[in-house]
From TrEMBL:
GO biological process terms on file: organic acid phosphorylation
Lineage: Bacteria, Bacillati, Actinomycetota, Actinomycetes, Micrococcales
InterPro entries referenced in this protein's UniProt entry, alphabetically: Glyc_kinase_flavodox-like_fold, Glycerate_kinase, Glycerate_kinase_RE-like, Glycerate_kinase_sf
Claim: Isomerase is one of the keywords in the record: no
Source organism (scientific name): Agromyces agglutinans
EC number: 2.7.1.-
Family the entry assigns: Belongs to the glycerate kinase type-1 family.
Record key words, sorted: Kinase, Transferase
Coiled coil start-end: none
Protein name, entry field: Glycerate kinase
Length: 375
């Protein structure tokens, strides 16, 4: 652990806010917050410890809302997964009628083994959105991180009533590969947005096409070879050409998010809302910070990309505005963390990254205890 955490005098109970992201693949944000709380209370049992699990629009976003919003209700739905097998997913109904739909639960990369870089699709995500609309959603929060596919959101839009056809007016195939035969896009049957609109939760700002586009940047993460990346890029360009207004939408910030799902949702009329910032607003982070003596945030790996809109940077910025010091917990810390009042690396506490990943909750608990001992 680095420098001692500052805040309330040691003699009185402090208000501690725990606002971590998920530790991807090892612990959800809610699990991380709970483990940190156990560790903190083991050292300072009289402190007020408040858990506000965070997310940036990726895996765990729905869980973060469920944990932070009283009265939120999970609604189960069975959808067509990215490899066509049924997936038991859910959407979240918030008390104001807004629905949170998470792509990772219906069409995410963790649902695949092996990966399907050319054929994975977002049909299930669209089916989950449709189920939320059928359930009376008055607005949509669409978390699109953790995608398995590079289909430009065509699968999701198809499930919502759009038609993508080849030169013979037959349906184009699913996945990025299916876009190779695309000749015409018909959005006339697309379901209308709910009255409250749809906001896309994503901190990815990549355009759809080019060297910073969906295929070039994210295709390899989804198993694409260099040749397949070129194929996917060409197919996304075909989609942009065929989509009404596609040229302008393709260049929009975030159009390349989730294998181009951002592009498809923008074509539907959804708006980019950012990821961590929009989640922080929706779950009431500002209210939680009021009167806090310290906020603890974290993620699986704190590196050079963490400052670009990830949860720790968002929480730190809001805490700074509120005059609250911030501590960082991460599985590994590879970037300068000196701006934080204190920091704890699970890899250092456990002795190695492998040991930390084997028992993440144990070492998150240890991190909470270490931070509390430093007050």
């Amino acid at each position: 652990m680095s420098r001692e955490a500052r805040g309330a005098p040691a003699g009185r109970p402090a208000r501690i806010v725990l606002a971590p992201d998920s530790f991807k693949g090892t612990a959800t944000a809610a699990e991380a917050a709970d483990a940190l709380a156990r560790g903190w209370r083991s050292v300072r049992p009289h402190d007020e410890v408040v858990g506000v699990p965070m997310a940036d629009g990726g895996e765990g976003t729905l869980d973060a809302f469920a944990a932070a919003v009283p009265g939120a209700e999970r609604v189960p739905v069975t959808v067509q997964g990215p490899d066509d097998r049924p997936v038991e997913a859910c959407w979240l109904r918030l008390p104001d009628g807004t629905a949170v739909v998470e792509l990772a639960l219906a069409s995410g990369i963790t649902l695949l083994d092996p990966l399907r870089p050319l054929d994975a699709h977002t049909i299930g995500f669209g089916q989950a959105i449709a189920a939320a609309l059928d359930g009376g959603a008055v607005g949509l929060l669409l978390a699109i991180g953790g995608s398995s596919s590079t289909d430009g959101g065509v699968g999701a839009l198809t499930a919502l009533g759009a038609r993508f056809t080849d030169a013979g007016a037959h349906p184009a195939g699913a996945g990025g590969r299916g876009l190779e035969a695309l000749a015409r896009v018909d959005l006339s049957g697309l379901r209308p947005l709910p009255a409250g609109g749809a906001r896309i939760l994503s901190d990815v700002t990549n355009p759809l096409l080019g060297s910073a586009g969906a295929a070039a940047v994210f295709g390899p993460q989804k198993g694409a070879t260099p040749e397949q990346v070129d194929q996917l890029a060409a197919n996304l360009a075909r989609l942009a050409h065929a989509m009404p207004g596609g040229a302008g939408l393709a260049a929009a910030a975030g159009a390349g998010a989730a294998g181009g799902t951002g592009f498809g949702l923008l074509a539907w009329g959804a708006e980019m809302a950012g990821g961590a910032g929009a989640v922080a607003d929706a779950i009431g982070l500002a209210d939680a910070l009021a009167g806090a003596d310290l906020v603890v945030t974290g993620e699986g790996r704190f590196d050079g990309q963490s400052a670009a809109g990830k949860v720790p940077s968002e929480v730190a910025a809001r805490a700074a505005a509120a005059g609250v010091p911030v501590a960082l917990v991460a599985g590994a810390i590879t970037a300068d963390a000196s701006a934080f009042a204190a920091s704890a690396s699970l890899s250092e506490l456990a002795g190695s990254p492998e040991a930390a990943m084997r028992e993440p909750l144990r070492w998150l608990e240890a991190a909470g205890a270490a931070l509390a001992a430093g007050r």
